[in-house]
Specification:
Glycerol uptake facilitator protein, mainly alpha, 13 helices
Length: 274
């Protein structure tokens, strides 16, 4: 599920990248403003992330789709070591498969220099600034995830908050570092494009940012406040992390409860009349 979800994310990224950035695309020609196109790309990818998190598979796996997220929850003691290893491997394999599939189908569109397989690379400000930017945006994302997902009143909004941050980052931060926060996402585009420039930034920056956010959260709230590793936990899916069993609403219960209430109300009314 983690593999398929990140694969779908990459397919979405390359597809919308081609639609918005290829010079022959009618959408690109209709929207000459680069920031407006990044805004639309942000909406597309933020919506993709939200759809994945709230999908049946996202609810089942926890919708990490990011090795940095998985390893941060492992550091917090919420994931067994072999689950963490298999999640990370699956994320890299799925992301790469999705990027290669989209590259094969879209061919000349995503290979054009203006799209370039939506690779993440440092902007004009340089490598150091790109690294610091990746650390910062990853720190904020994990901080939001931990605070929202562990709040009993807000936890169901975790996916919406994460998607909103993705959309915002793509709009405003992408020119600085390419907006990755995800080693598997960057690696997938790099494989498809054969582009390996400054890859170390996207393997270290997101991990450092998310680890730092976890340390700050634990230092202020305590490790026991981290309930589980799922982004969307309160659902009818089994949880492999904390052991919560799958829950199903029984139809017969829905049918019998009103009849029991009805019988009780009838008996009470009869007693009052007598």
């Amino acid at each position: 599920m983690e593999s398929a979800c990140l694969g779908l994310f990459m397919i979405s990224a390359l597809t919308f990248g081609a639609i918005l950035e290829h010079p022959l695309s009618p959408v690109h020609q209709a929207i000459p403003n680069p920031m407006l196109r990044r805004f639309l790309m942000g909406l597309a990818m933020g919506s993709t992330a939200i759809a994945i998190i709230y999908s049946p598979w996202g609810k089942q796996s926890g919708a990490h789709i990011n090795p940095s997220t998985t390893l941060t929850f492992f550091r917090l003691g919420k994931i067994a070591i072999w689950d963490a290893v298999l999640y990370v491997v699956s994320q890299f394999v799925g992301g790469m498969a999705g990027a290669l599939l989209a590259a094969a189908v879209l061919a000349g569109w995503v290979s054009h220099p203006s799209v370039n397989y939506v690779v993440t690379m440092p902007g004009d400000a340089g490598v150091a600034v790109a690294f610091l930017a990746e650390v910062a945006i990853s720190f904020v994302l994990m901080t939001v995830i931990l605070h929202v997902s562990n709040n009993p009143r807000l936890h169901k909004l975790t996916g919406l908050c994460s998607g909103a941050l993705v959309a915002t980052y793509i709009t405003f931060e992408a020119p600085i570092s390419g907006m990755s926060m995800n080693p598997a996402r960057t690696f997938a585009s790099a494989v498809a494009a054969g582009h390996w420039t400054a890859l170390w930034i996207y393997f270290t920056g997101p991990l450092l940012g998310m680890f730092s956010a976890a340390e700050v959260y634990v230092g202020s709230r305590g490790r026991e406040k981290v309930t589980c590793a799922k982004l969307h936990h309160d659902n009818d899916k089994r949880c492999i992390f904390c052991g919560k069993p799958a829950t199903k609403v029984r139809v017969e219960n829905i049918l019998t409860i009103p009849s029991q209430v009805s019988r009780g109300s009838t008996q009470k009314l009869a007693a009052q009349r007598s």
